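Researcher: Quick one. three chains, 549 residues in total.
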Amino acid sequence: MIGVVITTPLQSIVVRQDRDISVVRRAVSTHAERLNLSVLSRTRLVTASSELTRNMLVYGGGGVVELKVYRDGERLGLGATFADQGPGIDNVEDALADGFTSGVGLGLGLGGARRLVDQFDIQSSEVTGTSISVAIWLKDDGR
Amino acid sequence: MTLERIAIVKIEECLLVTIQVDMHDRLALTLREDLGERLLTTQARGVLLDISGLDTLDTFIARVLAGISSMAKLLGAETVLVGMQPAVAMTLVELGLTLEGVHTSLDVDRGMALLKKLLV
Amino acid sequence: MIKDLRQISTQTVGLIQEQQDEILKDWIESQLTADTLRLDLMDQKKLEQESKALLKALTAALGGQGRDFTAPNWQAVNGLLKEISEARDKAGFSPTETATFVLSLRHPLVERLLSSKKISSLDEEVWLLLDILDQLAIFTTEVYQRRREATIHRQQEEMEELSTPVVKIWDGILALPLVGTLDTRRSQMVTEALLDAINTTGAEIAIIDLTGVPAIDTRMAQHLMRTVAASRLMGANCILSGIRPQIAQTIVHLKINLGDIKTESTLAAALKTALATYGLKVTVSE
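Model:
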């Protein structure tokens, strides 16, 4: 049974314009507070979500953010999936390396976001676009 | 779209900007423009950016703030970023942004004191 | 857990059900005469109760669908064994003693099967049954192991907290004496503790003292740099003190760039520098 992560959807947000980035930030922050994530964990997840939402807007032309509760046995976490129907990422490894950018910004977004979260999964193809899932677990000591 | 703006208050030679709301991208860009104009019209020599009310700062907003500091410098003013929350500081460093070259201070009082030292 | 998913035949299950009382009697008897008997830790009544409950749950599980231990029909057995193992661990039983409790059921069970004439493919049934009991015995030792790991984990955390104190040594001056090596987790805790202390005390200077740090690697150096960078973002300056010659050599050797981080040889020297920043000086009173 160990290692099977069950997710329960919480909220879904359509992202079309830059204002929606703050909508996502607020939603992640609210759910993080409800789940009793520590201030640091919450800040990390909100920041990572902000980066990934902006990425999605800039490179994928917008998309959908799906917030969910993660559960692995007794462990609880908060996660989000960022899915766009954009052109996909050619080389995921390159994109995760610091300093890589194919558009605006300095390219700390993807690699930086990965460093902030406990779980980071990315799927990308020309046909289906890019889907990135991230999550932060509630720490053992209830933080 | 509403004309949301972040207030800029002039105190002596300095402009004080208190950012309390969740700052969305356009608001940050508007602030940069407004601040540029105010620096020109008031000839202020210092800018205090109070971000103690911000509980997140992503790379975009952080770059805008750093940009404000460089712009102010070109217009003859020093900028001090004050009141960054611990979790925000740690997250920003983990993102790889250390904002080298931007002056920082714990709170508005000390930021003001630092500005006075910088402006001597 | 078990790849081989063959079921115990209904014949066997029926036999065990029928002769449950006799099996239980044999089992308890064998436990009472075994070397591993610990009546000093647990009375006979409790032993009988536990044996009876486990045999009952096991019989029910064998009759259900699914031989994988994660299947619903095994939940009662798992729960019971976990409870028994934990209670025995607390009482002072060794893992071997608890495992033996389960394994001692092999004889009474197999004997009944062998003396019955009704069971077809007897060999296979016996092996299956022995496999299952082995797995259950292993499970009890796993419970022990998990409890040990949890204890170690807890102690580690307690030690971590003890070893990361942030001390206010003067108005506006914090000291963070580091002891031992810093892994990623601990250095994050240290950074968090320092930043929170800066926030609550309003200290503008933090002295990170490395006197108690025997060695440093690239990763730890990076953590230190991050701590310093995050403190600066908040508006506080760090001074590194007590860098041992070996560490200084490593820093040079690893080509780690400490940038413009202020360093002092000793904590005392760092304090002097920090005081001077506030325009303070320690003098001998006349």
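Residues 101-106 of chain A have pLDDT under 50 and may be disordered.
Researcher: Thanks, that's what I needed.
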